[in-house]
Amino acid sequence: MSNHSKKKSRITLLAILAAQSRILVGGQAVIEGVMMRVPGAYAVAVRDPDGEITTMREPFSSRVEKGGWLKLPFVRGMIHLFESLKLGLATLNWSADVAYPDEEASSASGWLPVLIALVLAVGLFFVAPLWITTKLLQVEQQALTFNLVSGLVRITFFLVYLGLISLAKDVQRLFQYHGAEHKTVYTFEAGRELTVESTYDFPTQHPRCGTSFLFIVLIAAILTFALIDTLAIALVGELSLGLRLASHLPLIPLVAGIGYEALKLTARYQHITLFRWFAKPGLWLQNITTSMPDDDQVAVAIKSLEEAFGDKLEEMTGKQYIADAIA
C-alpha cells in the first residue's frame, strides 16, 4: 500500500456525490476492531489474541426514526450524539473483553472512566477557555471578541490534546482502525467490491468523520455563545464568569445539534466549492486521528460492515451512495 501514489490513495468525492441512492452508514474504531452501523442494526468485529475475527451483531433503530419532534433540526443532532456515545461505550467495552480476555472488565468500570473523561473534557474545553479569557483580557462585555478569543484557546487545547494522545501506541492502533473504517465506508459508498484491495484507492479521511464534527462544534460554539452573550448583556447589563458558565454549559447539547446540521450540509454538498473548503479543516485534523491501516485491519472493518448488513449484504452492495450522517 505504501507504494501507491497520493493520486491513487485519494479518490475524488464527486463520483460518490453523484450517486442516486442515500443510506446512513457509519461507525467507529474500537479496541482492535471496528463497529459499523447500518439501517436497522450495528455490528462489531474485533481481532482476538489468537488472530481470529470475532463478531457481534445487534438490531438498532434511532429514536429519530420515530419522527415527531425528535426529527426536528438541531434536536436530532442532540439525539444522535447521545445515541452515539451510548453505543460507542457499549461496543468499546465489548471489544475490550474480546481483545483482552484475561483482564477483568465490567460495564460499571467502563462507565466511571467515561464520566470522568466527560467532566475533564468540559473543564478543559469549555470552563478553562472562559476562565483564561476572563483573567487575561478585559473583554468580558464584548461578546464577539470574548468568544473569538476563548474559541481560539479552545481550538488550541483541542489540537494539543490530539497531538499528545496520538503519541501513545495504543491510540496509534486505534487511529489505524479508524482509517480502516473510513476506507471501508468509502469503498461501500462508491459501489466497489468489499475487498481489501478495493480500499487501496480511497483515503483515510472522510468528510462525515466525528473528528470533523468536533471541529465544527468548536466553530459553532464561537458563534452561538457570542449570540447568547449579546442577548445576556442586553438583559442583565454585565456578564461575569459565573453567569457565562451558567448560560454556556447547559447549551453544549444545542451547540452539538448545530454542529450536526452543519456537518450534514458540508457532507451533502461537497460538489460546491464553498462547502468543500468548509470541510477542509476537519479533513486536515484527520491526518492526526486516522492512520493508514494494514490489510488485516481493513479486513476487520470489512467483516464488521458485512456482519452489520447480514442477509441484506448482496442487496445493498454494488451501488453508489451518498450519505449525510457521521461516519
Brief write-up:
With 327 residues, this protein is of the alpha+beta class. It has helices spanning 6-9, 14-17, 75-99, 107-136, 143-165, 169-189, 210-236, 241-248, 252-268, 273-289, 295-309, 313-316, and strands at residues 21-22, 26-30, 33-38, 40-47, 53-60, 321-322.
Description of the structure:
With 327 residues, the chain is of the alpha+beta class. The protein has one domain (6-322). Helix content is 60%, strand content 9%. The strands form 2 sheets. The protein has a 4-stranded antiparallel sheet. A two-stranded parallel ribbon has the order 1-6. A hairpin with a 5-residue loop joins strand 4 (40-47) and strand 5 (53-60). Helix 5 packs antiparallel against helix 7 (210-236) and helix 7 packs across helix 10. Mean pLDDT is 85; it is low at 5-20 and 105-109.
What key attributes describe this structure?
327 residues, alpha+beta, four-stranded antiparallel β-sheet, two-stranded parallel ribbon
Number of domains as seen in the coordinates: 1
Identify low-pLDDT runs.
Answer: 5-20, 105-109
* Biggest sheet descriptor: 4 strands, antiparallel
> How many H/I helices?
12
Spatially, the strands of the biggest sheet line up as: 2-3-4-5
Silhouette: globular
Question: How many runs of DSSP E, i.e. beta strands?
Answer: 6
Assembly state of the chains shown: single chain
Structural class: alpha+beta
How do the helices and strands follow one another from N- to C-terminus?
Answer: HHEEEEEHHHHHHHHHHE
